[in-house]
Amino acid sequence: MERHNMAPPGIGSSTERHLDIHNTRNSQNIIVLDGGFATQLSCYVDEPIDGDVLWSARFLSTNPEAVIDSHLDFLRAGADLIITNTYQADVDLFVKHLNVTKEEAYNLIKKAVELAKIAVERYMQEFPNARRPLVVGSVGPYGASLHDGSEYTGSYAANTSLDVMREWHTPRINALLEGGADLLALETIPCRAEAEMLVTLLKEKYPETKAWLSFTAGQDGKTTAYGEPFQEAARACYDICPDQLVAIGVNCIAPRLVESLISGINDKRANPIPLIVYPNSGESYNVELGDDTASYRWINRDKCEPVECYVAKWLDLGVTFVGGCCRTYAIDVTRIKREVEKWKQDHRF
Ligand SMILES: [Zn+2]
């Protein structure tokens, strides 16, 4: 198709065929992530996504082509990897709300990986000389299954045992890996206890698997969403499993909060942590507005500086994985990618 003839930004300049996610400390090796999956998906589906008990995961079952198209948009926009549509995926939740058996629910999570791989294949057919993008299995927090807003605060950490969280996380991780995900995104994690549990689980049960760990943070630009010092939590988690963690960082927070969270995190560290940042657009989600499914609950977009304005600064601070989360579209990924390429040009030595 004609409109796809132009290579995504950055593709033409790459001489390596494989993405090296393990050696990002070389400042020229910056990995660009995708954007908000549910946000891009909203371009393809009429049904409301925000407010749905299964969020975008419902469409694995009801509209797989829209899932593939959304992934493909991010790849054409310049993403080096795509994250599966499984943030809110959960076997029990699927059984309850999609009227499927446990086995079918498990297979639906595997199917999420399959759909992402189909997008990669279609992309490689369009751009045979491109580096093959990776498929990253999304592992959202336990709180996302509770539907009480606690995924944003981590308040469930106070009354949920680590065993319960571990048991809840395990089937999805198994399905993602069985489906063939290249690595895992342990993402939007609001509290240190869950993060440490996940990283320990990775080390003990999945020693061959790589992952990144990404926290959500509080409004003070210093703490996790649950209120623990972010840098301390990040360092502790990295030290549990440095060989398997490709990066640690933050996602789904306002871009303006990022700098103070990550500045100085690697000072005096012999073993520096590779950093990952993929914020939301900075808009606020106002639960007071409209009904459960109203997209106009996202407000103040005009008051936010776009994510790409921050990219050079983050790269200066040592970030090597950068992308977008909620309310960022494929077009935002293109803008982020352009900033990354510009920064690399400026820092060629
Ligand atoms: Zn998000």
Automatic annotation (TrEMBL):
Zn(2+) binds at residues 252, 325-326. Pathway: Amino-acid biosynthesis; L-methionine biosynthesis via de novo pathway. One of its GO terms (molecular function) is S-adenosylmethionine-homocysteine S-methyltransferase activity. GO terms for biological process: methionine biosynthetic process; methylation; S-methylmethionine cycle. InterPro entries: BHMT-like (IPR017226), HCY_dom (IPR003726), HCY_dom_sf (IPR036589), Hcy_S-methyltransferase (IPR051486). Its cofactor is Zn(2+). Keywords: Metal-binding, Methyltransferase, Transferase, Zinc. Residues 19-340 form the Hcy-binding domain. It holds the Pfam family S-methyl_trans. NCBIfam families: PRK09485.1. This is Uncharacterized protein LOC115885043 isoform X1. It comes from Sitophilus oryzae (Rice weevil). The lineage of its organism: Eukaryota, Metazoa, Ecdysozoa, Arthropoda, Hexapoda. The gene is LOC115885043.
